[in-house]
Design brief:
The structure is a single chain. The chain has a six-stranded antiparallel β-barrel with strand order 1-4-5-8-7-6. Strands 2-3 form a two-stranded antiparallel ribbon. The chain has three helices and eight strands. It is globular and about 50 Å long. Helices cover 11% and strands 45% of the residues. By secondary structure, it is mainly β. Strand 2 and strand 3 form a beta hairpin.
Length: 121
């Protein structure tokens, strides 16, 4: 059965960078994999902005809801990036909202935050 939340979701390109490696003593960046997902893109509220690290507060930030788990920086791994309205954003916080459907009737999903790669000028 399709989630009732799908009507709020749009197609989003998720980019996952594979690990790089040394080749003949020279560092070679890993390749990038495109993963098409659907997500509801929402503005970040003022309260949510206040909860961000200072370095993120001066960047455009969105909150997305999706059924796809995304990666953030863990053990030196590159975070996923998403393309929103033609710009790249870096995923920096993921909140799993995993509920028991029989009890709550809520669809399991992930809420994640992504900020622009460049600060607002």
């Amino acid at each position: 059965m399709t989630s009732p939340f799908e009507i709020f979701r749009v197609s989003v390109n998720l980019y996952r960078k594979n690990a790089g490696s040394y080749v003949n003593g020279v560092w070679v960046e890993g390749s990038e994999t495109l993963i098409p997902i659907t997500a509801s893109i929402q503005p970040t509220t003022g309260e949510e902005m206040l909860s961000l690290n200072e370095g993120r507060r001066n960047k455009k930030t969105y909150c997305l809801f999706t059924s796809t788990n995304v990666d953030i920086i863990v053990n030196g791994k590159n975070p996923d990036q998403v393309e929103i309205y033609g710009e790249r954003y870096e995923v920096f916080r993921v909140e799993p909202w995993q509920n028991h459907p029989a009890v709550f009737g809520i669809t399991n999903h992930y809420k994640f935050y992504a900020s622009a790669l460049e600060a607002i000028a």
